[in-house]
Amino acid sequence: MFENLAERLQDILSNLRSKGRLSEADIEAAMREIRLALLEADVNFRVVRSFVDAVRERALDAEVLESLTPAQNVVRIVLDQLTQLLGSEQDRFTITSRIPNVIMLVGLQGSGKTTAAAKLAYRLQNQGHRPLLVAADVYRPAAADQLQTLGGEIGVPVFKGDGISPVMIAKESVQHAIDTLRNVVIIDTAGRLHVDQQMMAEAAAIKQAVNPDQILMVVDAMTGQDVVNVATAFAEQVDFDGVIIAKMDGDARGGGALSIRAVTGKPIKFISEGEKPSSLDEFHPDRMARRILGMGDVVSLIERAQAVADEEIELEEAERIARAELTFDDFLMMNQQVKKMGGLTSLVKALPGGDRALGSGQYDEKALDRMEVIINSMTKAERAKPAILNGSRRARIAKGAGVQVSQVNQLIKSYDETRKMIKRMGMTETVTTSSKRPTKKSKGKNKKKRNNTRAASVDMGALGRLSPTDLKGLEELMKQ
């Protein structure tokens, strides 16, 4: 999503940076290019006009044109306006004190409501809540069965009721949640292929019957500008509270996603990228704006690293890794953490310029799987002491893993580069300063654990301290 728009905007701003001074003609030319880029991305034309006018007005200010770095100021202005277009500040999703808390999902058929309901339930369950999924779509064939399957995969019960009356199913589900001690009810309502009065009347009837604490509209990011018309109709009829944009990992132009906040005034609460239950993420306007302009999203990368941190990593092990005393077992653990964070593609996307690198096909998503196979073909001694990997050992490992010796050599090179990078990143900060190393007397009896808010093997927060040389090294490592 947004790849084409991002590439166009980055090219436009890059051309501005190549000029030492900017004239009004330069600004006007850039504004025309930005307008065309947004229109081609299927952004609502009223939104485009408002956006371009706001950027032009600020960019033509005398203080900008006469500054030492006018192009950088224009980039900052575009970033600020893009962030404002997406919502300025994050509108966090919160659960009220009401028990059970009722969340109602609405949207067109095929927008991804059922999958979004399961993902939201998975997210809330991981936060300590006890959700109940409600199958209120009685029209689409196997809709209830799909929700039942998704609920079974994540361990969340599904209420089907009589399977005939959506309003009665929704109403009875609230009492069922009370009886079974479930504190959150997520209602998956029916949709249509297009907005019609019957769908709206049913949504309004369910709303009146259960008095939901929040109504979230699920929109397909691939719908395009028409999503604005759909969202406007729902806003008028059921007055939803926020938006979930599904299928953000698609290859659509993304104009609808950029337009929806400006047109409806409703905040984007979540975006969904991928099929996994964990692929529902909170929406941050500033981070998305930075991604579109090719500035990366290292903050989200750090948060994902913290989320997958292994709480059982002992302090001694963290300190050993911090001293770059890395083994292949540690390297394997790091690779597995990258997978938990969404895989190589997700990691590269978060780095500045990552979207372009992915578009060029430089990164191989299966690289981590090959690394794992090669490492598992090593003996315990070889994983602990990589220095003993001579030619004959490498040949045996390659044969056992079903790869070429050159690929084993490449893995060892990547391992060496990772050690060097850890040293440059100042990894001693991964250890909590208030913790003391276990004494010999206490060793083995009461080992202290690493702070669970830090990445298990690599302090991803240190990414922000990487020099251009380090970032280049990380890119080269990802290409391998």
Strand order of the largest sheet: 3-2-4-1-5-6-7-8
CATH architecture of the largest domain: 3-Layer(aba) Sandwich
Per the principal axes of the C-alpha atoms, what is the gross shape? flat
- Compute the number of helices: 22
The level 1 CATH classification of the largest domain is Alpha Beta
The CATH homologous superfamily of the largest domain is named P-loop containing nucleotide triphosphate hydrolases
Any overview of this molecule?
The structure is a single chain. With 480 residues, the protein is α/β, with parallel strands linked by helices. It has three domains: 3-86, Four Helix Bundle (Hemerythrin (Met), subunit A); 101-285, Rossmann fold, CATH 3.40.50.300; 298-437 and 447-479, 434 Repressor (Amino-terminal Domain). Helices cover 53% and strands 8% of the residues.
Could you name the key traits of this structure?
480 residues, 3 domains, single chain, alpha/beta, 53% helix, flat, Four Helix Bundle (Hemerythrin (Met), subunit A), 434 Repressor (Amino-terminal Domain), eight-stranded mixed beta sheet, Rossmann fold
